[in-house]
Amino acid sequence: MKMSGGPASVNFKILLLLIALVIAGGTLFYTQNLVKKLQERERNIVELYAKGIEYVANSSSADADLTFLFDNIIKPIDFPIILTDIDDNVSLESKSDIKNVKFDSTLSKSELKSFLQNFVKEIDQIHQPINVTYADTIILQRIHYGDSELIKQLKFYPYLQIIIAALFIIIGYIGFSQIKRSEQSNIWVGMAKETAHQFGTPISSLMGWIEMMKMNYQKPDAVLDITEEISSDVDKLNKITYRFSKIGSKPEIKNQIVFEEVKKVTEYFNRRLPQTGKTVELTVSGNQTCCAQMNGELFEWVLENLIKNALDAMESKNGKINIDILESKKNIEIEVSDNGKGIDLRRRKDVFRPGYSTKKRGWGLGLSLSKRIVEGYHGGKIFVKSSAPGEGTTFKILLKKC
Fold first, then answer.
1. Of the candidates 116, 151, 186, which is a domain's last residue?
2. Number of independent structural domains in the chain
3. Edge-to-edge order in the sheet of strand 392-400
4. In sequence order, what are the residues at sequence separation of 6 or more whose Cβ sits closer than 8 angstroms to the Cβ of residue 236?
5. Which domain holds residue 101?
């Protein structure tokens, strides 16, 4: 019974990392694809702009209407555009040749021209300039253009998202590790408490028997009866020691008669029920000959936890606990029923979670250990078959048939 995270925990972390990489890769692919489409759209606009200039240059009319060109093509452009001659020289004479280029207004003409020449070289590395021709042969001008602010932001967006995702994974991993360490610490503390609780019952009984022996030392028959009970409690201590010694190791599974193992537990409790101050009827019913694959010592531990929970759930002095043994085609079914306060429907899965408890005392490990013993060691199942507030609860255990 390992208390630390095993292969399943490692696999979960790997799966989490793979999912994060898939999301990051998908986001990067989608965003870059979107950037390419926007760049194509902007190039189409620049080409349309070039066609407009060509139309004006090729028009035979000196009064060619430029209103459509400026109102519908040039004004909506929100990315940097620079018009140059065929040798990529920038002219500062026409303000319309330079659009959406940010520069320092205090620059001199020579400094500004040098800045624009360098800027042209930079944007030419991003996009190939578009030629404005006359009669489809003579190059009049070249249009150089860069990316809009939207495209620049989209280019960096996936990397920013990957960084945020990475930070999220790191924080999540640290948080997960902290929770695991805290859970392990609580489990170890709970195990220590459970150990003390397990030893507490037989030790208290032994102390009581010793006092009774002192009171009845002159009555041989009474002393003999008390000695038998002391022997029973010593055997109980040995069983508890054996149970805890098996934590972390694989127990031996044998073919055993279920009724006999159940009867041992009920007889032990029946002799000690009067000490609880409650009138509880603990009975066993069902098939008395069916055989299951089990480790008797650990299976008794499971039944003891279920009976103790049932006793704690008794709100009235007159309680009933019944253990019914059934046989199906593949499994042996053991149902432990009580008439206690019941379990809330929303909490049925929580009862097996380590640390969960509705009692003021205890560490909530009993049912968690029971689930580990039944499912981890015996390959069976344990679950809440039915429960209703104020009516009681039935736990069901499935074990493999011999």
1. 151
2. 2
3. 279-286, 318-327, 331-338, 392-400, 381-388
4. 201, 202, 268
5. 7-151
Q: What is the distance between the alpha carbons of residues 30 and 34, in angstroms, rounded to a whole number?
A: 6
Residue 292's pLDDT band (cuts 50, 70, 90) = very high
The Cα–Cα gap between 137 and 271 comes to: 112
Closest listed residue to residue 176, CA positions, set 379, 305, 12, 359: 12
Q: Looking at the structure, do residues 146 and 21 belong to the same domain, yes or no?
A: yes
Cα 328 from chain centroid (whole Å): 36
Q: What is the CATH number of the domain that holds 334?
A: 3.30.565.10
Q: Which residues does residue 133 pair with via DSSP β-bridges, in sequence order?
A: 139
Q: 74-124, pLDDT tens digit by residue?
A: 666 778 888 888 888 888 877 778 888 888 888 888 888 888 889 889 888
Reported confidence tier of residue 303, pLDDT bands at 50, 70, 90: very high
d(CA 365, CA 193): 9
Give dist(CA 85, CA 255) in Å, integer.
97
Domain shared by 141 and 256, yes or no: no
Q: Is the pLDDT of residue 276 over 70?
A: no
Rounded CA-CA distance 234/203 in Å is: 9
The secondary structure of residue 90, as a DSSP letter, is B
pTM for the model stands at: 0.49
Give, rounded to a whole angstrom, the gap between the first and last alpha carbons of the chain. Answer: 24
What's the CA gap between 386 and 400, in Å, rounded?
Answer: 22
Of 126, 121, 128, 154, whose CA–CA distance to 143 is shortest? 128
> What is the amino acid identity at position 143?
I
329, part of any domain: yes
- For residues 305 and 209, the model is more confident at 305
Rounded to an integer, the average pLDDT of 211-223 is 74
In a domain, 271, yes or no: yes
CA-CA distance, 43 to 110, in Å (whole number)? 30
CA–CA separation, 97 and 89 (whole Å) = 11
Q: Is 20 exposed, middle or buried (0-12, 13-18, 19+ CB in 10 A)?
A: middle
**Confidence at residue 160, expressed as pLDDT on a 0 to 100 scale:** 76
Question: pLDDT tens digits, residue range 162-194?
Answer: 787 778 778 877 877 777 777 666 666 666 666
